[in-house]
Amino acid sequence: MTDLRALFSSNDPVGSNEAFTNRQDQWDLVATAIEEHLRHIAAPAFNVEDLEAPRNNLIVFHGVGGVGKSTLLRKLESSLTAADQRPVHWGAPAWAGEKILPIRIDLARSASTGSDFERVVLTIRLALAATVGRPLPSFDLALRRYWDAQHPGEPLDEYVRRTGLVGKFGQMLPGQLQAAVSEAIGALQLPGLVGSAAGQVTTALVQALRERRERARALAGCARTAALLEAEPDLEALSFYPHLLAWEISRLPAKKAAVPVLLLDTFEDTSDRHRDTERLLQRLVWLMPNCFFVISGRNRLQWADTALQGQLDYTGPAAWPGLAPQVAQPARAAGQGGARQHLIGDFSEQDCDTYLAHRLTQDGQPLISPDTRAVITQRSHGLPLHLDLAVARFLEIRRTGRTPTPADFDHTFPALIARTLSDLTADERHVLRSASLLDAFDLDLATHAAGLTHQAAARRLIERPMITEDPYAIWPYHLHGAIRTALRTADDHTEDRWTPADWHRAAERALAALGQQRQDGRADVPGRTLLVACLRQGLRLARDHRLDDLSWLTDAAFAYTDDSVWEPLAPPTHALVSASGAGPHPGPDTPADALAELLVAIGRRQHEHRDRTAERLTAVLGTGLLSGELAELALYYRAKAHKDLGHTDAAADGMRQVADAGGRLAVRARRGLANLARIRGDFPTALAAVPTLGWKGRHHRVLGHIRWPHGDIDRATAAFEAARTEAEQHDAPGERAIAQTHIALVTAFADPARADDELALAHQLLAHLDQRATTLLAHVAALVRDAGTDRDVTDRATVLRTEITVAGLAWLTPLLETALAFHHAVCGAQDDLAATLDRLHEATANGDFAYYRHIAAAMGDLPQPAGPAGPAIRWLDDEPTVRARWRALVTARQHRLHGTQ
Questions:
Q1: DSSP state of 1
Q2: CA distance 725 to 501
Q3: What is the pLDDT of residues 138-160, one digit of tens each?
Q4: Are the C-beta atoms of 751 and 714 separated by less than 8 Å?
Q5: In the chain, what are the domains?
C-alpha cells in the first residue's frame, strides 16, 4: 500500500511500505475461530432458524485508540480475500479450501443511527450480489418493500451511487431485487401483478404462504417469512430481515455457497452510549448464525453481562458463552473478556523498531536512523499511533530541509490526547486526568483524586482499554504509559483542559486520598505493604507537584523506619515535567524533595558504603528543608552510619542530640547511646540503660548484646529469644529477623547442631527483607557454627572480610576476626590465631570493641592483651570468669569434634 503522505512529503524520493507487524497471535485466533465456526455450521444438528441456541459466531478485538485495530481488520480482509495477500509469517489456515467472503464495514459514527444500520444491511447484500449471482427472494422482497416505504421516489441504484456504496457490485443489487419480485410473480403464477409495486407482490406471497402453497414455500419457505413480510416495513423490521438473509445463504447451491465473514470496525461508535444502534447490530449477529463476525472497538463487548438485560435483546453468559468471563480467571481480569474477547496489545520494542525501519525508506535503506528509532520506541510505550505520529513529524521536519534528530522526538503528541478523550464523557475525562497523576489506582483513589462523590465515572473509565489491570496488585488499575505521559506533559488544546492550578489541586487531592487509605488500612493488604505503596506514590506526587503539606508523609516516614525491612522506595530521579509546571531539579529544593532524598538515603544504605550514606544525610540536613522531626530522623541515621563506620564520637554526638530533643526517636537514640557504651567496653553503663528502653528501644536485644560478650550464652540466648517473641507480638518482621540471626550467632558458639536450625530460620526470615548487615552477620554465625571443621572456614572468612569492607560496616570486622579466632583456637592453630589477633588489634586500635581481643585471647588460652589507649574494659563479671567461659566453649567444641564429650 502506498503512503501518499510520504510520497508527497518532499521533492526527494521517499519509499514507504505498509509496515504491518506483530499480529501473528491475532491471526491465529481468527483462523482457529473460523475453523471452529465452519465445523459448527456443517454439523447435521445446526439449524439456521434456531433462535435459542447460544451464539459463538464472533470474535472481538478491543484496545486503545491507535493500537492498530483497523489495520488488523484491513489485513484480515485482504488475507481472507486472497492467499497471496496474507503475510508470509501468518501461514495458511486449515480451512484454506473453503470459500470465504470477507465483508469489512467501518461503523464510524454517522449523523443518523438509522441510516447507519441501513447502510450496514445494504453493504452486506451488495457484497453477496456478485458471489450469489442471483436473487435471494424472501430477503430481497422484504428489502424492496422496505425501500419503497422508507425511500419513496428514490431509486435504490441512485441511492447506492450517491452514498458511495456502488463499489464493485453496486449496480447488481437493484436488478437482483427486481428479479426477486419477478421470480415471485412467476412462481405464484400471478401475471396480473407484473409491473406492480413490491408491496402488492409481497401481499400475494404472504397469502400464498399462509395457505401453505407449495410453490410459495419453495420460493420463501423460512418459517418466519410471512410474519416479517406482514410487519410494518420500518427500521425495526429491517433489523430482523437478516434472519431471512441467513436462511437464503444456507440454501444456496454448492457452486454459489460462501461463508460470509463480516469485519465490523470502530464498534465503539455504536456501543455504550448508543444502545439503540448496538441493539440492531447485536440482532444482526444473532440472526445470522451461519455468518462469522470479527468485531473491533475500543471497549470489550458487554453482551454477556446480565446487567444489560432489557437494553439489548440477547444478554448473559448463556447467550454469548465466548464473551463471558472465564471461570479460571480472577473476576475483574476475566471481565476483560472471555475466550472470544481479546485485548490488542502494544508492539514490542523489536516490533516498534521494525515498523519504523520499514515505514520510510530511501534507496532501500531505512530513512529513520537507529538512534532516532530508539527514542521514538521508548516514548511510544509500544502504541502504534505514537509511531505513526512520529513518522508524520519526521516528514514535516524533513520537509523544512533539516535532518531530524533524536531530540526532535523526545516528547509526546497532543493528538494522542485528542484520540484518547474523543469518546469520553466530561466526568470520565476529569477522572482520567486525575488518575494520570497516579502510578496505579483503584476506584476509591481515582474518585477521590477527581474530587467526585460517586464512583460511576471511574467505574466506566476502568472498562476502557486504555486502562490495564493487574488483579493481584494493591491498586489494580494502570493507565497506558503513552497516554499517561501525553496527558501530563503535552499541550492540551481540548475545551475542558486543565490549568496548572487544576493539576496542583488534583495532586493535593490524590495525595490526601493516599494518606486516607494508608490511615484506614485495607483488609486485603498487609499494613506494611500498604504503607510502602502509599509512600512510593505519595513521595512522587509531593515532589513532582511541589506540595507543601507533608503531614501524613511524615508519619509514614517514621513508620517506614520503625522495622528494619528497607523496601526500596526509589521515587524517579528525573521527575516528569508535569502540567502544573513542576519539573526535575538538580537537588532538593522543597520539603518533599528533602523527605524523598532522606528516605532513599536511609533505604539505600543497605546497598551503599556507609560513607556515602553519611554524605547524603549530611547534604540533606544542610538544605534546611526538613522539619524538626524529620531533621531528627536524618540525624539519627547519620549517627548510625557513623557508628557502623567506627566513628564513635560522631555517632555519640548525633545520638545525644536526638535523645535530648525528646521526640519520637528519643528512645531509639538512648538505645544507640547504650550500644555505643557497650562498644567502648562500658558494660555497666549499657546495662543501666536497659530498663529505660522498652520495646521501642529494643531492650531485650540490647541486653543480649551485653550478655554474650561475657560468654554468658544461656542468658544471651534467652534475651534474644525474648526480643524475637516481642517482635512477633508487634508484627515486626525486620526486628524478628535481626533477633533470630543473633540467636543463631550466640548458639553457634555452644551448640552447632542447634545453630544449624537457627540459621536456617534466620535465612528464611531474611529472604524477603533488605538487610545487608544482618545477612552478613548470619554468614559470620555460619563460620562460628563450622569452627574447627574443614568447611573452608578461612577462605569463606576472606571473602566475607571483603564484603564487609565494601559495605562500610566496620563494626562487623572485629566480630568476623573473633569468629576466625574461635576456629583457629578449636583447631589448635597457634600461628593462625596469632595472625588473627594482630588483625583484631588493628581493627580495635581506636578502642572500639577492644573486648573482642580479650575474648580471642581467652579462646586460645593466651595472656590478656595489653589494652589500647583509652578507658579499660568494664566487665559485669570479673575477667577471669569471662575468660574461663570462652575457653570452656573452645574445649567443648574440641571434645564434640573428636567424639570425647
A1: -
A2: 51
A3: 888 888 888 888 888 887 777 77
A4: no
A5: 4-22+347-411 (no CATH), 134-255 (no CATH), 416-497 (1.10.10), 791-796+810-901 (no CATH)
